[in-house]
C-alpha cells in the first residue's frame, strides 16, 4: 500500500532511488482511523508526519471559542503541524478523519534520524516543506484578498471534490461564512 507515497513523491520530484525508498519504508507505520476520530488533538505535541492513502481529513482550530476549518485533505496528501513539531509546543490545530482513513504515519524523530543517513531524504523533506510554505502563503493571500463569493468560486474551480466529501458546515467555516450564507451562494450559482 505504501507505494502510493512513493508515487506521490515521484510525481512531484522525479524518481526516488530504491535504496532511499527502502530506508524511508523502515519508519512507515500504517494507521487506520475511523470516520469521526481524531488523528491529532489540539493541545497535544505533534510528533508525526502523515501521508493520507485513503480517506478525507479536516484540519480545524478554535478562534474565539468557535471551531474553524482551515484545511481539507484527501488521498495522496501529506500533513503535519509544522509549528508544533518545530517549536516543540502543543498544537493549536487538530486533524479529524471525515471518512474512514488509511494513513502512513512517520514519527518525526525517526524521520530526523533518517536525514543523518540520507541527504536525498533530507532534500526531499526540504522540498516538501517549501511546497507546504507556498500553499500556506497562497491560502493566506486568498483569505486576505478574496471575499466569500470569490473563495467559494475558487473552491469549486480548484477543489470541487470538497463539496462531495466534506460537510457543508465545515466548508462554510473554511470560507468564513455561516452555513445559511453558503446555501445562498450555492443557490445563486
Report on the architecture of this protein.
The protein has a four-stranded antiparallel sheet. Strands 2-7-4-5 form a four-stranded antiparallel sheet. Helices cover 50% and strands 25% of the residues. The protein is globular, with a radius of gyration of 17 Å. The protein has helices at residues 3-13, 18-25, 82-87, 108-117, 119-145, 148-158, 162-165, 168-175, 179-188; strands spanning 29-33, 38-40, 48-54, 56-63, 66-74, 77-79, 93-97, 101-107. It is built from nine helices and eight strands.
Shape: globular
In the predicted model, the low-confidence regions spanning at least 5 consecutive residues are none
Alpha-beta content class:
alpha+beta
Strand order of the largest sheet: 1-8-3-6
Radius of gyration equals: 17 Å
> Terminal Cα separation, in Å?
40 Å
Report the biggest beta sheet as strand number plus sense, adding barrel if it closes: 4 strands, antiparallel
Indicate the proportion of strand residues: 15-25%
Mean of residue pLDDT values = 93
Helix content: 40-55%
In short:
With 189 residues, the protein is α+β, with helices and mostly antiparallel strands.
Observed structural traits:
single chain, 189 residues, alpha+beta, four-stranded antiparallel β-sheet, 9 helices, 25% strand
Topology at a glance:
Blueprint: H1 3-13, H2 18-25, E1 29-33, E2 38-40, E3 48-54, E4 56-63, E5 66-74, E6 77-79, H3 82-87, E7 93-97, E8 101-107, H4 108-117, H5 119-145, H6 148-158, H7 162-165, H8 168-175, H9 179-188
Antiparallel strand pairs: 1-8, 2-7, 3-6, 3-8, 4-5, 4-7
Helix pairs in contact: 4-5
